[in-house]
Amino acid sequence: MLPLKIESLAVSFPGLATPVLAIDNLAIAAGSRIALTGGSGSGKSTLINIIAGLERIRTGRVVWGEQNLADLSEGRRDRWRAANIGLVMQDFHLFPGLSALDNILLPARLSRVASADVIKRAHMLLDTVGLKRPEQHVETMSRGEMQRVAIARAILRRPGVIIADEPTASLDLESGAAVGDLLLSVASYAGSTLIIATHDQRLVERLDRRLLLKGGRITGDTDHKEIAA
Ligand SMILES: Nc1ncnc2c1ncn2[C@@H]1O[C@H](COP(=O)(O)OP(=O)(O)OP(=O)(O)O)[C@@H](O)[C@H]1O
């Protein structure tokens, strides 16, 4: 469970007159559940790439707990991410030719932390996400099943933070609701801070706080918990 603090963040790309992301101040409490919303091109994926440590930070501070990501070299950022962030990307980033189980275990194997306990947990997670065939190759799976493999892989190391980019996109209503259930239940079980970029209004309503991005700036910040209280 990690809190996030962003200060004076600006992300620019060559050839663009204004930054695609500009956030002066944002604090996210440890263990909270955040919906990141906004139209196409508003900066959601850019923000996710920054807070997940996938992009280098040139201007500003992005601090998870005590760690300012701007202070880390690329290699140290990769190791920090592997240990602290469970990432579910839009296109899953699964490896074809490998089974569901091997996909879940691959990052842990690359980080040399795939102990017997971790392998046991991978089997348990396959069961939790409702996948009955650990040896099935991922390229033969439906999108909903691939999504569940990606989620199981993201939470294998009990990350303090789970970040998902459009996790219900292109799923039917029922599968989308099931993926929402899964993310919410694993985050609350592990006490992880949960950040989901989504256009899915049903999913937004299930989260505690909604951040709205427009033109790379936060133009709305609504606390559903306060509204409900
Ligand atoms: N590498 C890049 N070079 C130049 N411009 C970029 C780059 N990456 C993103 N952008 C621009 O930054 C803006 C924000 O893009 P981003 O992908 O973060 O939006 P988004 O809110 O995730 O959109 P969508 O919902 O369509 O995925 C867009 O105008 C995009 O064209």
Automatic annotation (TrEMBL):
GO terms for molecular function: ATP binding; ATP hydrolysis activity; transmembrane transporter activity. Residues 4-229 form the ABC transporter domain. GO terms for cellular component: plasma membrane. Keywords: ATP-binding, Nucleotide-binding. Pfam families: ABC_tran. It comes from the Bacteria. InterPro entries: AAA+_ATPase, ABC_transporter-like_ATP-bd, ABC_transpr_LolD-like, P-loop_NTPase. Gene3D superfamilies: P-loop containing nucleotide triphosphate hydrolases (3.40.50.300). This is ATP-binding cassette domain-containing protein. The lineage of its organism: Bacteria, Pseudomonadati, Pseudomonadota, Alphaproteobacteria, Hyphomicrobiales.
